[in-house]
Amino acid sequence: MSQTAPVSVAPAVVPHPERWGRKARLGIAFCSPLILIFLFLVIYPMLYEIYLGLDWDIYTSIFSDPIFIQTLWNTVIFVGLAVNIKMVLALTLSSLFSTDHRFTKILGGIFLLPWAIPSLPGILAFRWMLNGQWGIVNKILNDFGFEGYPWLVRRPTALAAAITYHIWKYLPFWTLIFVAGRRGIPKELYEAGDIDGTSPFQKFRYITFPMLRNLYLICILLSMVFTLGDFVIIKIMTGGAPGDSTHVLSTLAYRYTFQMGKIDWGVGTFLTALPVTLLFIFILIRKVK
Fold first, then answer.
1. How many whole angstroms separate alpha carbon 170 and alpha carbon 213?
2. Is 75 exposed, middle or buried (0-12, 13-18, 19+ CB in 10 A)?
3. pLDDT given at position 2
4. Helix axes 155-183, 209-228, angle to 10 degrees
5. Cβ(21)–Cβ(29) under 8 Å?
6. What domains are there in the chain, each with its CATH number?
7. pLDDT digits over 248-270, tens only?
8. What does pTM read for this prediction?
9. CA angle 164, 167, 172 (to 5 degrees)
């Protein structure tokens, strides 16, 4: 009878304690300047703002300000419309840009330009086009026999202009995310759908969206956090005009702090949005895990 040769098992390699201790000390020494900078520039100002915000008289004052109440509604409208419209369009357009046609690749490169250019030239271009006196939009309307409109002097259209620019600016980025997500879906699922005779809508409902559902929710939460802190668009597009009626929380906090000299009101405005932001971040961390 043939004897089976004994199988030799290599001993497990146990890292030397001194080596790992030396690496840990080197890591701490390397990261300590970054940790100190983070504590000094991020943690300390945040804790100081929370300390200032413990005075409940601040919230009594700012909630009695009608501009603050209007700003809360503006923020809800701005974040709600901008994020949801942008995500629906991004998910829809990702089906077009996930194809392998040469024309689609060229169109995709052009489509990414709004996201690639700096914000300032784009916002100034929007302001120029929507100018009530010599803007190109009113000029086109006049050429067709319609009367011009003061787009940035009326609250509904000024806020709509800011939302439109936000969607135009950041739609390409989220579309690119969904294109990457679509390319991760196994093609065998779509081939099985073709065999079963499913329609394009059924493929989206039963294959694409279930596979992208978690990604879609994560993108929604991330975009809400980013949009809630958006300062540049409203500040440059409208500056809060007309009559401080188009502020969002970030620009109103700037107005209270630097234009009115009421630091406590600015801190209170910031802390009003903080619980919502932390809730979004908490849900995002859970979903990412």
1. 20
2. buried
3. 47
4. 140
5. no
6. 18-52 (no CATH), 57-288 (1.10.3720.10)
7. 999 999 999 999 999 889 989 98
8. 0.84
9. 145
